[in-house]
Design goal:
Length: 371
């Protein structure tokens, strides 16, 4: 049986049975309000035919929450979610207090809000050498319903305001499910604002070309991680298929059409991509863009990793070049959840019987960096 959150499938089934699809959001609302429900008989005001169809072909959720780990400081909760096919993925809730940040020298308004980092695939084909998920290879795509269900599970712990597709997998390699899931998440009953949804990609050019048309007003974040093609290929083998010049052209076309700020993610690897010359190269690469650069201190992912974390001094110097010389808004990612392996690049589910060894990449407040 399928998830009720597999939007295209449930609409097609309702259509084929001659039942109005207008009832579908009511079903979603019921599951959201009753996340532990085992059947759909309690959904109000459906026809007998609709109840029969739901009983035969659908389940409230097809995934189950098997474990939740809380960081010591209570800012991060990592969820281990088992899918119907027996594989597991992780989602991470981050609580962030915007009043702790400053903007233009003043305390930022707001209060505590939660960001959910979701997975789009089990494993990943991209094989980035600094990322734990890349070491597990690719196993399967999530359905749109399995993506949405991560939010259903997370609402048991926190009211989610922002969603970032920065968990396991390359979202643009599961494009159809991604688009369908975001359409559900930004509609009733979830009603997450499109401006508070961010999709992160290594730079799948043919999907970036469609992104604004299919997902208007959704934030795009690009895992650039290097200012030139040689370094990029060294640390991100998949970059060979997406030459930097072509990627930047695609991003320029995207920005011209969407008028959206592009978020650039850049992992700081000691001696590899964190020198002043790299900062200048990156500044020149981005000088015609409306962009925010997010510098990410590297998280060692175990003894297999050959990379080291950049020093605070290198990160500050790099930030100073981008800000001071190129006037590019540059933030340094606040790492959260490292004690539960819930921080950037640590996400991997190794063995089905094992308590997860992973986490997720998180942009704690990227959705609020509106310029």
């Amino acid at each position: 049986r399928r998830s009720v959150f597999d939007a295209a499938y449930i609409r097609a089934e309702f259509d084929a049975a001659g039942i109005s699809p207008t009832f579908i959001p009511t079903i979603w609302k019921y599951v959201l309000q009753n996340p532990r429900c085992s059947d759909l008989d309690g959904v109000p005001s459906l026809s007998a035919a609709a109840y029969a169809l739901l009983r035969n072909k659908f389940r409230p959720t097809t995934s189950t929450l098997t474990a939740a780990a809380e960081s010591k400081d209570r800012t991060t909760t990592k969820l281990l979610i088992r899918l119907q096919n027996g594989e597991s993925v992780e989602a991470v809730i981050m609580r962030y207090d915007s009043r702790l940040g400053k903007y233009d020298g003043k305390t930022r308004p707001g209060g505590v809000r939660s960001t959910l980092c979701v997975s789009s695939q089990v494993g990943c084909k991209m094989g980035c050498r600094f990322c734990a998920t890349g070491t597990m290879g690719f196993k399967s795509n999530l359905s749109s319903g399995e993506i949405v269900e991560q939010l259903v599970h997370a609402t048991r712990y926190s009211q989610i305001r922002n969603i970032v597709f920065m968990g396991m997998g390359e979202p643009l390699n599961n494009y159809t499910a991604l688009v369908e899931a975001i359409q559900v998440l930004t509609g009733f009953p979830f009603q997450i604002s499109p401006k508070r949804v961010t999709v992160s990609t290594v730079g799948i050019i043919h999907s970036i070309n469609k992104f604004n048309n299919d997902l208007p007003n959704i934030n795009l974040a690009v895992s650039l991680h290097a200012p030139d093609q040689d370094i990029r290929c060294h640390i991100m083998p998949a970059a060979r298929a997406f030459p930097l010049a072509k990627l930047m052209n695609a991003l320029q076309s995207y920005q011209n059409a969407s008028k959206q700020t592009i978020f650039i993610e850049y992992i700081m690897l000691d001696g590899v991509n964190d020198q002043e010359e790299h900062a200048h190269k990156l500044g020149k690469l981005l000088e015609n863009f409306k962009a925010v650069v997010n510098l990410i201190p590297f998280n060692p992912i175990g003894s297999a990793s050959t990379f080291k974390t950049s020093s605070d001094q290198s990160i500050k110097k790099f930030q100073k070049v981008l800000r001071g010389i190129y006037s590019i808004r540059t933030t340094v990612r606040q790492e959260m959840g490292q004690d539960i392996a819930g921080a950037c690049g640590q996400l991997v589910v190794s063995l089905p019987d094992e308590r997860s060894a992973g986490g997720a990449t998180l942009l704690s407040d990227i959705e609020d960096l509106r310029i």
